[in-house]
Inverse folding.
């Protein structure tokens, strides 16, 4: 398939616009396509309630999809490059496990006798998730200062994930059924519950993470050669590692706080992107993966809301359903996989 | 004295190299000079790679100093513009093209955007032409042979445009032609571009024939330096490698004349040498005295043949050997 660079970018941007509009036009209430366009351009539709549905539910959800998809995918790309491991994802540092632990503590604390909050508000959950992810980040950073190589860092991240997961299951075992359900609902992930204020905050978080990632573009390329070569061409390894981890932590922590732990997107998108845009160069990969992440998340969300029905499936089930075959494909094609 | 004639690029003072609980080299005082190809040899596990990494600033020495004479400042941040390395680390990102990999050599000169200028592209193309690998430019790394990958890695180091290049076993796992090509290239880089080049290698014969200087690492945590011929004649090579049945002074493997049969061989040139080689390898003694057989090498009218005792003619050495062996038994 010989496509020019221009067509490849055209395909990506076209898909993004197409899926954004498609995402807006599908949902439990059937809104005529003409009304959607009119409402988007500031007019009123044939029914007054349509504008509310579009602006307060569908646009916020589509924007959340774009932010979350981009953020997680860039996090995944950075981890795959830093660890030179095709199967790394944004959660390898254990950040989402830390967030899960904090949220489960908040929701299920009644069981342990200390009720932190009688009825956890969305903001309390966001705060708890941020503190959890941030705490793990600080621990990972402290450990990484003592470690020279990335593989040990990867193992530390995975071990932290395993340890927090087991604490969560102990909490689950001790807690009441309704609390368990509240926690379970959070782990399903949710893209549709964000208000405009929350979207603005998430937007700032994601932009900050992306900017830090952009600053690392040279060292990200150099990491592909391995530690020794990267250093021999003038990359300051610990400084660069810190920036890459910081960026990934901000992106993953932010998304996990607002949308819950969303799996597989960050792992799968960098590989899917490299199928279309065949390069190792992060100058090109960063924007391409940002767009592709948004596309895949919009696509997963369309499937999750089961067009034509009033049911909405958990987003995490859909991302795994789409992501798992990709991971299997990566393993099967292992010989040709390249980070 | 001599020192004023050569430009020293790296000078070590009392350099001790290794790991916390394992000192590999102690108190090294070495000079690496511009325009010289230095082959660094020694048994496996002696610490050649560790010394190369230490000289390249990738690992801290245990004690002692490394002075980089090519750099005014001794700021380690400037080192990538003075020293390039070719390591044994495998590049796992196989979908990079050769040009992608080679362009990493320009990174010490680029800002954070890593945007190559047209000047960088020119340097890259010049190096590709100099090393004669233009045809590999747009090939993916996983499409290349081991030898081609090694040429690409050397090109990457040359593109870095540094007065010093350190290479860790660049000829390992390569066939003879590739090994010759790489050593020849390194020699040219040293002599024509006046670079200081240090290569660790196991290729004894190749190193002896191409190196200007040999660094020989022994088991006593020291390194002996000198030109190859001196080190051969004073027995340093023999004492370090403890060759079993190989005589470095003659460049030949020693064969036990187990058959105890002497053969009088008559002939000239290469044909004489290789016939002698074949007979000795099979346990015969070449001697004019008390010879049991006489072998004549005839090269008339372009047909090479061997005549045994003036009677039986053989068209190949294999046939001659088979016949001799059947007679001896």
């Amino acid at each position: 398939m010989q496509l020019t660079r221009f067509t490849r970018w055209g395909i990506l941007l076209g898909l993004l616009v197409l899926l954004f509009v498609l995402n807006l036009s599908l949902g439990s209430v059937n809104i005529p396509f003409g009304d959607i366009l009119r409402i988007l351009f500031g007019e009123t539709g044939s029914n007054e309630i349509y504008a509310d549905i579009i602006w307060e539910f569908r646009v916020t959800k589509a924007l959340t999809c774009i932010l979350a998809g981009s953020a997680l995918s860039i996090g995944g790309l950075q981890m795959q490059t830093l660890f030179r491991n095709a199967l790394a994802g944004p959660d390898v540092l254990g950040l989402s496990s830390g967030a899960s632990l904090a949220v489960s503590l908040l929701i299920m604390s009644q069981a342990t006798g200390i009720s932190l909050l009688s009825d956890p508000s969305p903001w309390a959950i966001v705060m708890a998730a941020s503190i959890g992810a941030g705490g793990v980040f600080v621990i990972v950073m402290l450990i990484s200062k003592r470690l020279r190589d990335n593989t040990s860092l990867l193992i530390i991240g995975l071990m932290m994930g395993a340890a927090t997961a087991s604490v969560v299951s102990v909490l689950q075992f001790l807690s009441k059924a309704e609390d368990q359900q509240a926690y379970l609902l959070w782990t399903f992930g949710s893209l549709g519950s964000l208000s405009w204020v929350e979207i603005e905050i998430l937007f700032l978080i994601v932009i900050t993470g992306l900017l830090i990632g952009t600053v690392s573009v040279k060292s990200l390329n150099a990491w592909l050669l391995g530690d020794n070569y990267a250093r021999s061409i003038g990359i300051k390894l610990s400084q660069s590692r810190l920036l890459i981890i910081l960026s990934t932590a901000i992106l993953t922590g932010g998304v996990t706080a607002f949308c819950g732990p969303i799996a597989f997107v960050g792992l799968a998108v960098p590989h899917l992107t490299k199928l279309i845009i065949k390069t190792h160069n992060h100058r090109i990969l960063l924007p391409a993966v940002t767009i592709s992440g948004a596309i895949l998340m919009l696509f997963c969300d369309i499937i999750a809301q089961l067009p034509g029905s009033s049911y909405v499936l958990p987003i995490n089930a859909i991302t795994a359903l789409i992501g798992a075959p990709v991971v299997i494909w990566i393993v099967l094609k292992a010989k040709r996989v390249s980070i | 004295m001599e020192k004023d004639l050569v430009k020293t690029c790296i000078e070590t003072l009392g350099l001790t190299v290794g790991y916390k609980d394992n000192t590999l080299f102690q108190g090294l005082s070495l000079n690496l000079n511009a325009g010289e190809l230095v082959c660094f040899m020694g048994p496996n596990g002696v610490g050649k790679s560790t010394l190369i990494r230490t000289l390249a600033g990738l690992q801290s020495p245990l004690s002692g100093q490394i002075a980089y004479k090519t750099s005014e400042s001794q700021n380690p941040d400037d080192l990538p513009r003075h020293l390039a390395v070719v390591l044994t680390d495998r590049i796992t990102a196989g979908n990079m093209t050769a040009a992608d990999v080679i362009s990493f050599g320009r990174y010490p000169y680029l800002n954070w955007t890593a945007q190559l200028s047209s000047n960088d592209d020119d340097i890259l193309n010049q190096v590709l032409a100099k090393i004669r690998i233009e045809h590999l430019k747009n090939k993916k790394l996983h499409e290349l042979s081991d030898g081609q990958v090694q040429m690409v890695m050397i090109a990457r180091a040359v593109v870095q445009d540094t007065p010093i290049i350190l290479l860790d076993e660049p000829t390992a796992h390569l066939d003879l032609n590739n090994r010759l090509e790489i050593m020849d290239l390194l020699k040219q880089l040293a002599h024509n571009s006046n670079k200081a080049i240090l290569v660790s290698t196991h290729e004894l014969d190749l190193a002896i024939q191409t190196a200007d200087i040999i660094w020989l690492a022994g088991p006593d945590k020291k390194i002996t330096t000198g030109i190859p011929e001196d080190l051969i004649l004073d027995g340093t090579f023999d004492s370090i490698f403890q060759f079993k049945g190989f005589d470095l002074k003659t460049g030949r493997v020693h064969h036990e004349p187990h058959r105890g049969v002497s053969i009088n061989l008559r002939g000239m040139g290469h044909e004489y040498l290789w016939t002698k080689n074949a007979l000795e390898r099979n346990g015969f003694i070449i001697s004019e005295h008390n010879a049991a057989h006489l072998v004549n090498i005839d090269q008339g009218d372009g047909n090479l043949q061997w005549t045994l005792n003036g009677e039986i003619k053989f068209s190949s050495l294999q046939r001659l050997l088979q016949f001799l062996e059947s007679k001896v038994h």
About this structure: The interface with chain A takes residues 53, 56-58, 77, 79-81, 83-85, 87, 89-96, 100-101, 104-105, 107-108, 110-115, 142, 160 of chain B (CB under 8 Å). Chain B has two domains: 3-247, 262-328. The longest strand of chain B covers residues 8-19.
